[in-house]
UniProtKB/TrEMBL annotation:
Residues 104-187 form the Core-binding (CB) domain. It comes from the Bacteria. The keyword DNA-binding applies. This is Site-specific integrase. The keyword DNA-binding applies. It comes from Reichenbachiella ulvae.
């Protein structure tokens, strides 16, 4: 509960100084707060972080609460792990990684790393990525016995090493996410690194197909199943993973909607179902008789993401499209064409399952409807 004087506040942060864990107290100059801070047991000052510091343990944390109760609001958003567990995931086991035979000269992830991945129900894809990325990191610093002794400088040094190797921005960001997972989630130190820099992400615009190109792709699919796959990706704005996870009961023909279960970020949502594709889906169902998933290799066996990619690429090639076409380009095209037809941006955000409207706003930069009515100055007389 905040005190009656909300203008007074302190912020708690995690610090590591000389391999020891400290709690940092950040505050704006205030005589009352300064006096209370000075009276805390074992209090000190860090010139590097410009914060008051004291050993990070439960007794000192309780002293802070007792001292500032009713006087200042204690901001702990950077101090306690408060990320939700992914309740929608199936139980995760990383036993295959635990049981790997020892490899001489190679360090494996500590057991607590595996435990946190399982307890928090991370997807197996994320778990594989984090384990691989973190092991490369700890083996880069194989000579370091205590990982807590690594500073912002060493983390930046590792990032610099990856840049020098020519790793992509996406790869470097994944590696940094795995490192932060260890320090922030496994070791319980949110916001552990203050001076670690991520690569500046290029503001690339999404690649979009024209409606004519999409229709040519659909017309040139080799069979009914492939036509349904390409049509659904475009007409419903589905991600590749969402498409292959669709089950028969997710097609809500009475409402002309498709239910997307546990999409990106473990969120459920509804998106559009085309009348044209519904007729083809009914024909497809009669012919292929899927048992569990809408698209299957064999009864009950889910279609793979790589196969979806190949279906899309072949359809594009047959449709005379020279550039490389991916399933996600069909999703981008879905959003852009809706925007060009006058659909509200917030409705498109809901259909795509974006958390932030800013993510959806990128399509305003590629929508050409309206722009093509602007007279080019070179053509003006």
């Amino acid at each position: 509960m905040r005190p009656s004087t909300p203008d007074k506040s302190i912020t708690l942060k995690h610090l590591v100084i000389n391999s020891r864990r400290y709690g940092g107290i950040k505050f704006y100059p205030d005589k009352v707060i300064q006096s209370l801070v000075k009276n805390l047991p074992e209090i000190g000052w860090s010139n590097k972080y410009q914060m008051a510091v004291l050993p990070n343990n439960p007794s000192h944390l309780q002293n802070i609460y007792d001292a500032f109760k009713g006087v200042a609001w204690i901001n702990t958003q950077y101090f306690f792990v408060n990320r939700p567990v992914n309740h929608g995931n199936e139980p995760l086991s990383v036993d295959a990684y635990r049981k790997r035979p020892a490899k001489k000269g190679w360090k494996y992830c500590p057991e607590e790393f595996y435990q946190k991945l399982e307890i928090r129900k991370y997807s197996i894809h994320t778990a594989r990525s984090y384990i691989g990325m973190f092991e490369r990191f700890i083996n880069y610093y194989a000579h370091v016995e205590d990982l807590m002794s690594l500073s912002d400088k060493e983390i930046n040094g590792y990032i610099q090493h990856m840049v020098q190797l020519g790793r992509s921005d996406s790869y470097i960001n994944q590696a940094l996410n795995a490192i932060k997972f260890y320090y922030e989630v496994v070791m319980g130190m949110p916001n552990r690194f203050y001076e670690v820099n991520r690569p500046i992400q290029p503001e690339a615009l999404p690649k979009v197909l024209s409606k004519k190109q999409v229709f040519r792709m659909i017309e040139n699919c080799s069979n009914l199943k492939h036509r349904c796959i390409v049509s659904l990706l475009y007409s419903s704005g589905l991600r590749r993973g969402e498409l292959i996870a669709l089950k028969i009961e997710d097609i809500k023909s009475d409402r002309m909607m498709i239910r997307v279960n546990s999409g990106k970020g473990r969120k459920d949502r509804y998106t559009l179902l085309s009348e044209r594709i519904l007729d083809e889906l009914r024909e497809y169902f009669k012919k292929y008789r899927p048992q569990q998933y809408l698209f299957e290799y064999s009864p009950g066996v889910q279609y793979s993401g790589s196969s979806v990619g190949k279906v899309v690429a072949r359809a594009a090639k047959r449709g005379g499209i020279i550039e490389r076409v991916t399933p996600h380009m069909l999703r981008h095209s879905f959003a852009t064409h809706l925007l060009e037809s006058g659909i509200d941006l917030r409705q498109i955000q809901t259909l795509l399952g974006h958390n932030s409207l800013k993510t959806t706003e990128v399509y305003t930069h590629v929508a050409v409807e309206g722009m093509n009515k602007i007279k080019n100055p070179l053509d003006l007389e």
